[in-house]
Amino acid sequence: RAKELGIKHFYQGVGDKKEVLQNILGNLGLNMGNVASIGDDLNDYTMLLSSKISFVPANASNHVQKIADVVLSKNGGDGAVREMIEKLIALENLEDKYLGLWY
């Protein structure tokens, strides 16, 4: 499905998500100051802490909810990523640009 969506970097079963993310960012000439992340459990902890802004779904582990910048109202698998994207669009004042993609 990732290939079908044009996703260039896809990893499963990763223990240290922060390390993998830093490698991707290094290859792209970016840093953690360019990152918004979403995660729901302890294996996301260091990535969430290192990101410019971190989101967790409503049903995330209590441990990651405590360190997240934003606890979303939606559960994982029930619209949390869409909610995160909408919040980022609003935060960056990109509503007009985003809507312009669709009409």
Could you give a quick summary of the protein structure above?
By secondary structure, the chain is mainly alpha-helical. Helix content is 41%, strand content 9%. The protein has a single domain, classed as HAD superfamily/HAD-like (Rossmann fold).
State the helicity in percent bands.
40-55%
The sequence of SSEs as H and E is HEHEHEHH
Would you identify the regions where 5 or more consecutive residues have pLDDT less than 50?
none
Using only C-alpha atoms, the radius of gyration works out to 14 Å
Give an account of the 3D structure:
The structure is a single chain. With 103 residues, the chain is mainly alpha-helical. The protein has one domain (17-100): 3-Layer(aba) Sandwich (Rossmann fold). The protein is 41% helix and 9% strand. β2, α3 (62-67) and β3 (70-71) form a beta-alpha-beta unit. A three-stranded parallel sheet has the order 1-2-3.
